[in-house]
Design brief:
Layout: H1 2-16, H2 18-53, E1 58-62, H3 65-70, H4 81-93, E2 97-103, H5 105-116, E3 133-138, H6 144-151, E4 157-162, H7 164-206, H8 208-216, H9 221-256, H10 261-264, H11 273-302
Antiparallel strand pairs: 1-3, 1-4, 2-3
Helix pairs in contact: 1-9, 2-7, 2-9, 2-11, 7-11, 9-11
Length: 305
């Protein structure tokens, strides 16, 4: 009987404040969709870092005859065979180095022609102008500075470059978008909480006579408050469900179909459906608990009978 009464009161409250309830659902849905999107964006950046950082190398470029005349670090002349052997031996002795590949000037010239054959400068470049290099694969890509410190000032070394820097601007952009999404999410969350509090206030005021009678007949405060809390929780749960749908639809159209980023950017390792599905219970839980807690706190102030 009590459960039936509580459920009937929830229905009455939702019908009386239909417009505000709809506003709560929309604001909660948008804020939680942004929250879930920010979590997925952060996981996407982490996945891309793990994927690409495992494939990039540290490149040690050696001095050639051309560099000897133009680069200050190569003022002592082109790298000698003895210097190359010593650099390679020292690299292989380092614990942080997984493997070392020597790229000759001829190999560098061949790769350059393959990648830039349609440019004007490719027709005038000769093999002796290309730099020899050591392509170093590290066990931990974060230890790049150890290699840079050890080899940057050596005779015969023109420069030491970490290929991660090529990707860092992309990651910084994605992290910036993630922060912006979190900022908008915070704003929407504040709006949702304000709407929840106002909805509870209006609902409590419109039913002050009923709650007064319930108090007079001995109903507990929790029993009186329960319909209001469940109204807010129900609206929040609907908002969380809408947010889950938005996340699923967003993943479907952005990556698999519609824009189809997975087809257009095949070199990018996108997060899978399992990552999206793993976030949905958290979104639903927040959608349920956040409005319920906000309503409970608001009722302590506004529901005094």
């Amino acid at each position: 009987m009590r459960a039936q009464f509580v459920l009937s009161e929830i229905g009455v409250g939702l019908r009386r404040n239909l417009t505000m309830t709809f506003a709560v659902i929309v604001s909660v849905a948008l804020s939680l969709a942004l929250f879930g999107g920010a979590l997925l964006m952060r996981e996407q950046v982490s996945t891309m870092k793990d994927y690409w950082y495992d494939k990039v190398n540290v490149s040690i470029f050696l001095c050639n005859k051309t560099d000897a005349a133009t680069a200050p670090k190569c003022a002592k002349g082109a790298v000698t065979a003895q210097q190359k052997e010593q650099i390679e031996a020292d690299l292989r002795e380092m614990d942080i180095v997984e493997n070392v590949h020597h790229e000759s000037a001829d190999e560098a010239f061949k790769h350059y022609k393959e990648q830039y054959s349609d440019t004007a400068i490719a027709s005038v470049i000769t093999p002796d102008q290309m730099q020899e290099s050591f392509r170093v694969k590290l066990k931990d890509p974060e230890k790049y500075k150890v290699v840079a410190t050890a080899f940057a000032g050596r005779d015969g070394v023109e420069s030491v470059q970490d290929q991660r820097n090529i990707l860092q601007n992309l990651f910084d952009l994605m992290n910036g978008m993630n922060i912006a999404a979190l900022g908008v999410m915070g704003l929407m969350l504040v709006i949702a909480l304000m709407l929840i509090v106002n909805t509870v206030r209006v609902s409590a005021f419109s039913r002050r006579r009923e709650t007064g009678i319930m108090r007079l007949v001995g109903a507990s405060s929790f029993y009186i408050q329960m319909p209001f809390i469940m109204e807010a929780a129900f609206a929040g749960l609907l908002g969380g469900a809408v947010a889950c749908v938005l996340l699923l639809v967003g993943r479907y159209f952005l990556i698999d179909h519609g824009i189809a980023l997975a087809e257009k950017m095949q070199l990018v390792n996108f997060i899978g459906w399992d990552a999206v599905l793993a976030k949905l219970p958290l979104v639903l839980a927040i959608g349920l608990l956040m409005p319920a807690i906000a309503a409970f706190i608001a009722l302590r102030k506004y529901l005094k009978v």
